[in-house]
Amino acid sequence: MLIKRQDDIKPSEITNPSLYARRREFLKGGAALALGVALPVGSALGPAYGAAKLSPLTPSRFNTDEELTPYEAITTHNNFYEFGTDKESPAKLADSLRPRPWTVLVDGEVKRPREWDIEDILKQFPLEERIYRLRCVEAWSMVIPWVGISLASFIKAVEPNSNAKYVAFETLVDQEQMPGQRSNLFGFGLNWPYIEGLRIDEATNPLAILGVGLYGEVMPNQNGAPIRLVVPWKYGFKSIKSIVRISFVEQQPVNTWQVQAPREYGFYANVNPQVDHPRWSQGQERRIGDWLKRETLMFNGYGDQVAQLYSGMDLSKNF
Ligand SMILES: Nc1nc2c(c(=O)[nH]1)N[C@H]1C(S)=C(S)[C@@H](COP(=O)(O)O)O[C@H]1N2
Ligand SMILES: [Mo]
């Protein structure tokens, strides 16, 4: 995300008929949900990966009714440095990621440390549909119909103790599955594992989810299979993919982009049109698929839900 200029992003205009049909089917499903009718879907969780349907999905009161970004754009325009630094590589290379079997280690300041099997997470927590805006720090945005579980309910189940002030998340490290981690391959490497963190009150805000799918289907590898964070009021880089560890800690974690470029990327990473990136404006954004730019909204439009988390903080210092 340090390398590409925002001007050379173009929407995916390839019309793949089967994907298009899938999107239409999804939209019909969404209409059924609004009427409280069950979705016509297959077996509960289906096979481990592929285009398996996730169900049943509970609709969320936080869903935006803006036009959805097409499935093909969401799955071919990705930032996932473990698979290369450009937007196209993750879709081409992420086949080598094996999202099953998969475990997520929960440790640190919790009463119930545990290595969770992904299947147990999917069984224990209700799947919700969360249609959220995603705003990348590179000044493009999308609207994504995620499937996820409430991060607050997950945190409640593991019972953090009173020392737990922050939650740290880590992505898988495996050079065999993730070619971008063989750092000299692309001539660019982050410090692996990719790490992100939230303050505990941010993590338990009802908007934050652990995403396990999109468009009603199991998460595509390039979008962070099998489980990734989605924090819609923050720049996309906070929403760490392919999580293997969630640690409850006392000290503020140092996240990957802070290490990489501390002047450009802070811990908070709230979408904030008033605080420009040192090299470009954050006042506007291009919605993938649109010609014209639009104004970027404070907290990506989620201020009613999250502004109180930052009252009294100087957001130009805590960027
Ligand atoms: N592990 C990992 N997580 C990551 C990234 C990454 O490079 N590695 N990129 C981030 C960035 S910059 C963005 S904008 C979002 C993109 O998510 P998407 O590809 O599903 O749209 O993922 C975030 N999560
Ligand atoms: Mo991003």
What is the element layout, followed by pairings?
Elements: H1 17-34, E1 58-59, H2 71-74, H3 89-93, E2 103-108, E3 114-117, H4 118-124, E4 128-135, E5 140-150, H5 151-158, E6 166-171, E7 195-199, H6 200-203, E8 209-214, E9 217-218, E10 228-230, E11 243-249, H7 256-260, E12 284-287, E13 294-295, H8 303-306
Bound molecules: ligand MTE and molybdenum atom (MO).
Molybdenum atom is lined by residues 1, 79, 136-138, 235-237.
Question: Quick one: overall form?
Answer: globular
CATH class group: Alpha Beta
Radius of gyration: 19 Å
Small molecules in complex: ligand MTE, molybdenum atom
CATH topology: Sulfite Oxidase, Chain A, domain 2
Could you tell me the strand content as a percent range?
15-25%
Q: Count the domains.
A: 1
Tell me the name of the CATH homologous superfamily.
Oxidoreductase, molybdopterin-binding domain
Descriptive terms for the model:
319 residues; 8-stranded mixed β-sheet; 5-stranded mixed β-sheet; 8 helices; disordered N terminus; binds the ligand Nc1nc2c(c(=O)[nH]1)N[C@H]1C(S)=C(S)[C@@H](COP(=O)(O)O)O[C@H]1N2; binds molybdenum atom
